[in-house]
Structures are given as C-alpha cells and as structure tokens.
What we know:
Elements: E1 2-6, H1 13-26, E2 30-33, H2 44-54, H3 62-69, H4 77-85, H5 88-95, E3 101-102, E4 107-109, E5 123-124, E6 131-132, H6 135-142, E7 150-152, E8 160-163, E9 169-172, H7 185-190, E10 197-205, E11 208-216, H8 220-229, H9 233-241
Parallel strand pairs: 1-2, 4-7, 7-9
Antiparallel strand pairs: 1-10, 3-4, 5-6, 8-9, 10-11
Amino acid sequence: MRLAVISDIHANVAALEEVLDDIGARGADAIINLGDCVSGPLWPQETMELLTARGIPTVRGNHDRFLLDHPAERLGRSDRFALEALSEAWIQTLFDLPATIEISAEVLAVHGTPTDDNTYLLEDTDSGRMSPSPRADVVARMGDAMGRAVVLCGHSHRQSVTQLPDGPLVVNPGTVGCPVSPDNRLARDLEFRSPHARYAILARRRGHWGAELFALPYDWSRAAARAEAMGFPAWRAALMDGTVP
C-alpha cells in the first residue's frame, strides 16, 4: 500500500487542491490527514467541503480543537477567522475528529505526540528556534507508541523522516498550506522556509517502511492575495516566500 500523508492545511484550499491532484497522479492507494485543517485567513469553508467530499480520514489538530474548547476571546486571529467563517456544525465536526487514528497494527497517525496535540514530537523551541529534541525526550513523548513500526505526526510544519533506534519510523509530511509555524513566533521569525505545498507518501518495500517527501509549487500568489484581502499581511509574506517580516 502507498499511503499519502497530508497535514496542517490551515485553510489553504489552493495548496490542498494541488496536493490532491499530485497524489492522484502518483497513484496513492489512500490518504490520511493529520489535522489543523482550517485555522488561517484563507478558505476554511471550502477546505472543509473538499476534505469532506473526498472522505479523507482526519486526525484532530490542536487548532481544530481550539475552535470549540477555547473561548473566542482567547483564540488567535487566524482561529477567530475560522470560527467566524464556519457554521456550528462544521466546528463540531472538527472537534469530534479522533485524537489519533490507528491505520494498522503497525502505523499510528497523530497530530503532535501520541498523547498531546499541542506538543512537538521531534522538536524543541527553547533556543528561540526549532531544534531537534534530545533522544530521551522524544522517547518519553512517544510512550507506548515506541512499539509501533511507524508514527505519522504533523504540528511542527517541518517535513522529516526519522528512524528512532529500537522504535518507529517517524514521518512528518510537512505543511500543505502554512509554511511557517503559527504556534511559535520566535521560530517562524528566525527560520527560513519555502512556500511550497508539502506532503509525503508512506510505503513498505522489502519488509521495511520508507517515505517519499514532496514539495510542490502551486499558485501561492493566489493564497497570498487572499490573506492580504482578509487583513493578514504577515500571512501574505509567509505564503509568498516562507518567512515572516
């Protein structure tokens, strides 16, 4: 089986459309979405409609959860944009998504860590930018999932494939639609990224799991113009070149 893995769309339906077209062209057998679907000043409604129409299994991300379990006054601007753009039914749908999805006995899909959607699995930000976490910290965050063959995670927006010694292969497909991290301003101000739409394809060959990572060009000027029109100039900059001024 070839499993396409997407994550962190953040309401960027323009990027999502490009990714889904590419997945179709490459012949993946199934798709899994690791969450954070709609938080962004772009197309929350259209994103939900497309994901629902395609019937893509989706893990609940921290921003999907925030829309219902955080008071509106505590939400960030991009979350409030999504909250105001979506019906109560869509918001409940997002909240009701599973925190994890067991794809098989070997493969577990999560958003952040297996037990916390708001913690990075592989990265720390204590230095003011994202850096690899100590091995012991990653193992502790993994918990019982150390017994899996593969753990799929998102949240950090950093595309990576990491083999844990005596543990799972950890695949982060990167972000479909938001090249900077909306959860860590210091990291997004200090790190260079790129505006490409990212995803991964997981496959097993010769008894071992591996992954292909993709970074696709799409019409990011369309997404940037939408963010500008909605009153989010910082998002415009991030969408155009992957940095925040």
